[in-house]
Amino acid sequence: MRTDNHAKRILLGISGGIAAYKAPLVVRKLRNLGADVVPVLTQNATRFVTETALQAVADNRPRTDLWDAEAEAAMGHIELARWADAVVIAPATANVIARLAHGIADDLLTTLYLATTAPVFVAPAMNVRMWEHVATQRNLERLRDDGVTVLGPADGEQACGEFGPGRMIEPDEIAEKVTAAISTRVLDGTRVLITAGPTREFLDPVRFISNRSSGRQGFALAEAARDAGAEVTLVAGPVHLSTPTGIERIDVVSAQEMKDAVTQRAPDADIFVSVAAVADYRPHTVHDQKLKKSQQPSTDFRVALKENEDIVGSIAGVEPRPFVVGFAAETENPLEHAREKRRRKCMDAIVVNDVSDAAIGFDSSDNAVTLIHAGGEMGLPKMRKGAIARRLVDEIATLYASAGRGS
Predict the structure, then answer these.
(1) Less CB within 10 Å around the terminal CB: N or C of the chain?
(2) Mean pLDDT across the stretch 356-371?
(3) DSSP at 148
């Protein structure tokens, strides 16, 4: 069992329906959002998805048997029920919904349901006729009355060939709804402005200067801030990422466009988090037409550059201003450079990572960072960028409140 005390701890119950094949995706999506997941399978669920597959994505041993002596010795089912911050059952078949509604505890999953005081979510998955049956609807109504949140189902073509309600909603929607519901709203009532991704500085219509930033960390921070209760505006450079639900997105390309967007919105923001990898320089001259190799005077083609305006410095250097958090991607002496940069640019805090490590940072789903502020430093070891984002949001909210800026 992993021991990250800051991660939301979720029991993922999997019952025996065809949609169980999506369970590993549900696990992955939950982990991407910073959760620690323990899968719990009914016996019929093992017909559709293997324990090996689930352990590989969960990094926790799946549980299947109420009478598993080895598992009970490590963490008994009552302790497991107490451990959970939430119980999610996806897919939830008509059979398991009926057993939950009537308090029947005849396997590990249904026993955990009765033993937990954590919020419970069920994502139904069944044939449309089973979904519409009066008994199923009666059981669901009883679960709702007991405080269970029902997620879905969706309409669509089903494995049996019929069409209509009964499909399990998609894994990313399940993960998003659950994590949003159980997140601590430490930024309730605040307005957060975040930048993400690279910028492109064009030399001509087809060539530009840029960098390898994927935007993943900035987008993860935007989602984490939203889940913490903030009203989030995301200023994004050119990235191939979907807009998170409930977030205002402003698309830009160049550093100047990003600066204009931030400058316009910063006066209304309580917190500004500059995650974007903004180009320091841009070509002095931007050509209207593509430069031809044959038109260059020699093989030594040179491009004159001029410095872009510093976005973070322009926001942090004036009053009144939002609480400012910057990001620094370094390849050597990261802590030393980040400390100097925070002081020089008058930032309240800075987050630094070592992008020379290919396992973290650019183009990676993982990261490892250090948060530096006037009162100290906190290192976060390698973990998913969603988990990093949630830890950082908690720390930023604490620093914001300590500075007398929040509740």
Answers:
(1) C
(2) 83
(3) P
pLDDT at res. 216: 93
Q: What Rg do the C-alpha atoms of the chain give, in angstroms?
A: 25
Q: Are strands 366-373 and 231-236 parallel, antiparallel or unpaired?
A: unpaired
**What distance in Å separates the CA atoms of residue 245 and residue 226, rounded to the nearest whole number?**
9
CA distance 150 to 248: 27
Q: Is the pLDDT of residue 4 over 80?
A: no
Can you say how many angstroms the Cα of residue 338 is from the centroid of all Cα atoms in its chain? 25
Q: pLDDT for 93-114, tens place per residue? A: 999 999 999 999 999 999 999 9
Task: Pick the closest to residue 310 from 262, 356, 271 (CA basis).
Answer: 262
What ranges make up the beta strands (E) of 93-230?
Answer: 120-124, 149-150, 154-157, 163-167, 191-196, 201-202, 208-209
Distance CA 58, CA 37 (A): 6
Write down the pLDDT at residue 22.
97
Separation of alpha carbons 175 and 181, rounded Å: 10
- Phi and psi at 290, nearest 5°, equal -60, 130
The CA angle 41-45-51, to the nearest 5 degrees, is 60
As a whole number of angstroms, the distance between CA 182 and CA 84 comes to 11
- Judged against a pLDDT cut of 80, whether residue 73 lies above it is answered with no
Return the structure tokens found at 130: 């089973």
Catalytic site residue 346? no
- Chain segment 138-194, per-residue pLDDT in tens: 999 999 999 999 999 998 877 767 778 999 999 999 998 898 888 778 999 999 999
Query: Which one, of 241, 184, 221, 212, lies nearest residue 6 by Cα?
Result: 184
Q: Tokens 């001509």 belong to which residue?
A: 204
Report the number of secondary-structure helices (H) and strands (E) in the chain: 14, 19
Q: Where in 30-169 does DSSP place strands (E)?
A: 35-41, 86-92, 120-124, 149-150, 154-157, 163-167
Token pair belonging to 346? 């008058």
- CB-based contact 342:291 (threshold 8 Å): no
Cβ–Cβ < 8 Å for 31, 172: no
Token duo for residue 161:
């060939």
Q: What is the largest CA-CA distance in the chain?
A: 84
Handedness of CA 381, 385, 391, 393 (dihedral sign): positive
* CA dist 261 → 33, 180, 215, 273 (Å): 27, 27, 17, 14
Q: Quick one: which H or E segment has residue 367?
A: strand 366-373
Q: How far apart are CA 367 and CA 114, in angstroms?
A: 37
Question: Using an 8 Å Cβ cutoff, are 67 and 108 in contact?
Answer: no
